[in-house]
Design brief:
single chain; 591 residues; Butyryl-CoA Dehydrogenase, subunit A, domain 2; eight-stranded mixed beta sheet
C-alpha cells in the first residue's frame, strides 16, 4: 500500500491509484494469523456452546470472554501501557469479522471491545485508563455502552437521563433509564450518557454495584439471542465525580466518535456473516437434489450464489479500504503526544462518511445474502435447526444498530456538505468545473483493456453525483435538510460509487500484481458489480432529478444524465456463471 493520505469523502472528487489503497490481498502474515486464531477460537470454543448461550446461560459467555482475553482477542485496540496490544485497525477488523463464526457471542465480544472499551481508551484520563483498561483487556471486567433511552434512539441528544453534582462535589447523582443495552446482564463497567443539570450532555463510567443503579430483566428478542440485552435504571445513582469521562457537556464528541468506529466494525461483522451464509448456501446447493440434479446445477441457483459473492466482495473491499485509510491516518500521529488518544479519535472521525457508507453497505449486503441463502435452502431454511434461519434473524438488527440506516443516509450528505462549506473538501471547485466537463463529448469507450470501460463508468458516476448534489443545493439551499428523500438518493449515489471504486481498485491492484489469469476472479466480480451499480446509479439519478426540476429544466438535466449513463453492456449472465462455478467448486466465498 502506498503512503498517500486521502481526506474523508475525497473519493467523490478524485480517484486514487490502486497502489494507494489497502485490500484484503495486502494482509500481513501476522494479520492472517490473528484472523485464523480468532476463527479457531470461535469454531472450537464458542460454537459448541452456542445453543446454551442462546438460552441465556451467560456464565459461558463470561468464561469465553476471559479465554478470548488470554489469546489477546480483547486487547487489540488498548495501548500497551494499559495492558493492551495496540494493534493496527486492520488486525482489529479481522478479529471482528472472524468472531462471527461464534454466532451471537460475537455481539457480546464486539460490544465489549468496541463501544464498551474504546470510550475509555480514547477519552479516559490516565487514572481512568490505569483503573479500567488492564482488566478490560483480559476479560476480568466486561464493558457495556449505554446511550439509547425509551424516548431517544437515533436522536441521542434528546436523552432525558440527568446528572447532578452533589453539594460536596464528590458524586454525580444519575437519574433515568437506558434501554436495550448490550452486555447489560454481564457487564461490570458501563459507559453511560446523561445531561448534567439537565442540559450538558456528558459521559460517565458507572460500575455495577453503584448505589442507586439497578438492571432490568432480559429482553426477548427476534435474533442475537445469545447476547444479553437489558435496561439500566438510575435512581439517585451515586457515581464518583472522578468518573466523568471527558469534559462536561462534551459527551456528544465521545458518542459520535465511538459510533464511527462501531459502524465500521459492524460492517466487518456483516462481511463475515455474509461469508458464512454463502458457505452454507453453496454447501446445501451441492447436497440437495431436485428433479434428479443437485440445486447447484440449476443456473438460477448459480445466479443467486454469484450475486451473493459479488455483493460480499464489494462490501469486503470497502471495509478493508476504509480500515487502511484509518491506519494511514493513525500512523501520522505522534504516540508520545499528551493528547495522542484524542488525536487518534479525530483521525478516525475523518472517515465518518466512509464509516456510515460501510455500515449501510455491509448491513444491507448481509440482509440480501442471508435472504438468498435461506431461499436456496427452501422450506428447510425456515426451520430452526438449520443455521441459516439463525443468520436470517440475527442479520436484521444490523440495519438498526449503530444508528439506523436511515440516519446514516442523512449523515453521509450532511457531513459531506458541512465539510465542503468549511473548505475541508474542494467540492465547490469541483461543482464549478462540472459544467465544462458536461459540455465535453461522452462517447463510447474504445479502449478494450481490462476495466477500461468500468473506470470510465466510475468517472461518469462521480459526475452524476456532483450534478445531483449541486442542483439540490442550488434549488433548496438552507431547506435542503427537509428534502430527506433527495438526501437519501444522494447518499445512495455515494455508497454505490465508493463500493464500485473499491472493487475496481482492488481488481486493478490484483491485475498489476498477479497478472491477468490470476486476477480474473476479482476482475469478474468487479465488472459485474460495476455494471449493476451503474444501472442503480442511473435510476437514482432520474429519481433525484425529478425531485429537483420540472418541465424544460428537468428534460435538459435528464438529457445530460442519459448521455452520462450510456455504456456498452457486458454479458453478466456468462460472468456470473463463472463466479458461481468458483463458489460451487470451493463450497464457499472465494476470490
Amino acid at each position: 500500500m502506498g503512503d498517500k493520505r486521502f481526506k474523508g469523502g475525497s473519493f467523490l472528487l478524485e480517484t486514487p491509484d490502486a497502489a494507494d489503497i489497502f485490500t484484503p490481498e495486502d494482509y500481513s502474515e501476522e494479520q492472517r494469523m490473528i484472523a485464523q486464531t480468532t476463527r479457531d477460537f470461535a469454531l472450537e470454543k464458542v460454537r459448541p456452546l452456542a445453543g446454551k448461550i442462546d438460552h441465556h446461560e451467560f456464565e459461558h459467555s463470561v468464561r469465553l470472554l476471559r479465554e478470548a482475553g488470554e489469546l489477546g482477542l480483547l486487547a487489540a485496540e488498548i495501548p500497551e501501557d494499559y495492558g493492551g496490544l495496540d494493534l493496527d485497525k486492520i488486525s482489529a477488523t479481522l478479529i471482528t469479522e472472524n468472531m462471527v463464526w461464534g454466532g451471537s457471542f460475537a455481539v457480546t465480544h464486539g460490544a465489549h471491545v468496541g463501544i464498551g472499551t474504546l470510550p475509555i481508551v480514547f477519552f479516559g484520563t490516565p487514572d481512568q485508563r490505569r483503573k479500567y483498561l488492564p482488566a478490560l483487556a483480559t476479560g476480568e471486567r466486561i464493558a457495556a455502552y449505554a446511550l439509547t433511552e425509551p424516548g431517544s434512539g437515533s436522536d441521542a441528544l434528546a436523552a432525558r437521563t440527568t446528572a447532578k453534582l452533589t453539594s460536596d462535589g464528590k458524586h454525580y447523582l444519575l437519574n433515568g433509564t437506558k434501554q436495550w443495552i448490550t452486555n447489560a446482564g454481564l457487564a461490570d463497567v458501563f459507559v453511560v450518557y446523561a445531561k448534567i443539570d439537565g442540559d450538558k450532555f456528558s459521559a460517565f463510567i458507572v460500575e455495577r454495584g453503584t448505589p442507586g443503579f439497578s438492571i432490568g430483566p432480559e429482553e426477548k428478542k427476534m435474533g442475537i439471542e445469545g447476547s444479553s440485552t437489558r435496561s439500566l435504571i438510575f435512581e439517585d445513582a451515586q457515581v464518583p465525580a472522578e468518573n466523568l469521562l471527558g469534559e462536561a457537556g462534551r459527551g456528544h464528541v465521545i458518542a459520535f466518535n465511538i459510533l464511527n468506529i462501531g459502524r465500521h466494525k459492524l460492517a466487518a461483522g456483516c462481511v463475515g456473516s455474509a461469508k458464512i451464509a454463502l458457505e452454507l448456501a453453496a454447501g446445501y446447493s451441492k447436497m440437495r437434489t431436485q428433479f434428479g440434479r443437485p440445486l447447484a446445477a440449476f443456473t438460477l441457483i448459480q445466479e443467486k450464489l454469484a450475486e451473493m459473492a459479488i455483493r460480499t466482495f464489494a462490501a469486503e473491499s470497502a471495509v478493508y479500504r476504509t480500515g487502511g485509510l484509518i491506519d494511514e491516518g493513525l500512523r501520522a500521529l505522534d504516540p508520545a503526544a499528551p493528547d495522542a488518544m484524542r488525536q487518534a479519535a479525530k483521525a478516525i472521525e475523518e472517515y465518518a462518511i466512509e464509516a456510515s457508507i460501510n455500515k449501510v453497505l455491509g448491513s444491507e449486503t448481509l440482509d440480501f445474502v442471508a435472504d438468498e441463502a435461506l431461499q436456496i435452502h427452501g422450506g428447510y431454511g425456515y426451520m430452526e435447526e438449520y443455521e441459516v434461519e439463525h443468520i436470517y434473524r440475527d442479520a436484521r438488527i444490523n440495519r438498526i444498530f449503530e444508528g439506523t440506516n436511515e440516519i446514516n443516509r442523512l449523515l453521509i450528505p450532511g457531513t459531506l456538505l458541512r465539510r465542503a462549506m468549511k473548505g475541508e473538501l474542494p467540492m465547490m471547485a469541483a461543482l464549478g468545473r462540472l459544467q465544462d466537463d458536461l459540455l465535453g463529448a461522452v462517447g463510447p469507450v474504445l479502449d478494450d483493456a481490462p476495466l477500461a470501460q468500468e473506470k470510465a463508468m466510475l468517472g461518469r458516476a462521480k459526475k452524476i453525483f456532483l450534478l445531483v448534489a449541486g442542483l439540490g443545493v442550488q434549488k433548496f439551499q438552507q431547506q435542503l435538510e427537509n428534502e430527506q428523500e433527495l438526501l437519501a438518493a444522494v447518499a445512495d449515489l455515494g455508497i454505490e460509487i465508493f463500493a464500485m471504486e473499491s472493487t475496481l481498485l482492488r481488481a486493478e491492484k490484483a491485475l498489476r500484481g498477479e497478472g491477468a489469469a490470476a486476477a480474473q476472479p476479482k476482475l469478474d466480480l468487479a465488472v459485474v458489480f460495476t455494471h449493476e451499480a451503474f444501472e442503480r446509479i442511473g435510476a437514482l439519478g432520474r429519481k433525484a432529478l425529478a425531485a429537483i426540476e420540472e418541465g424544460d429544466a428537468l428534460r435538459t438535466q435528464l438529457s445530460i444524465l442519459k448521455k452520462l449513463t450510456r455504456y456498452e453492456p457486458v454479458n453478466t449472465v456468462a460472468v456470473k456463471r463463472r463466479v458461481a462455478a468458483r463458489v460451487i467448486e470451493a463450497g464457499k466465498y472465494v476470490v
